[in-house]
Amino acid sequence: MVGGGNTKSDISFAGTFASSAFSACFAEICTIPLDTAKVRLQLQKQAVGDTVTLPKYKGMLGTVGTIAREEGLSALWKGIVPGLHRQCLYGGLRIGLYEPVKNLYVGKDHVGDVPLLKKISCCLNN
């Protein structure tokens, strides 16, 4: 928070969970086409034995273009539903639980900066 000098968050756990889950889901929607292309590049077959075949996908943007051209634009978002479920839970809990876990380490009434070791411990426990 800027300007107020109050370092305590006025947002409830539910609000923090919802906003962090929404942010993680938005990021998933934006990046899943690149993730789909990355997986296709990783899974394509290389030369087998004596026969050399040309790879179907070449480069990240070429892979995105090939998928969109051959399977349609919606194919870039295959797997979005499980990805959103994962991000909603993981993103929401990871950021939403940071403050409660930090309060367990330093107490609710702690004033001032939290020591670095305790911040790292809070992150590792999430």
Structure characterization notes:
The longest helix has 31 residues, at 13-43. This protein has helices spanning 13-43, 60-71, 80-96, 98-106, 116-125. The chain has 5 helices and no strands. The chain has 126 residues and is an all-alpha fold. The protein is elongated and about 70 Å long. 63% of the residues lie in helices and 0% in strands. The model has no long low-confidence stretch (mean pLDDT 84). The chain has a domain at 13-93.
Give the secondary structure arrangement, pairings included.
Layout: H1 13-43, H2 60-71, H3 80-96, H4 98-106, H5 116-125
Helix pairs in contact: 1-2, 1-3, 4-5
Features:
mainly alpha, 0% strand, transmembrane helix, repeat, transport
Q: Could you provide a short overview of the structure?
A:
With 126 residues, the chain is mainly alpha-helical. It contains 5 helices and no strands.
Number of strand segments: 0
Q: What is the H-and-E element order? A: HHHHH
Task: Estimate the mean pLDDT confidence.
Answer: 84
Query: Rg, please?
Result: 22 Å
Percent strand: under 5%
Structural class: mainly alpha
The low-confidence parts are none
What is the overall number of helices? 5
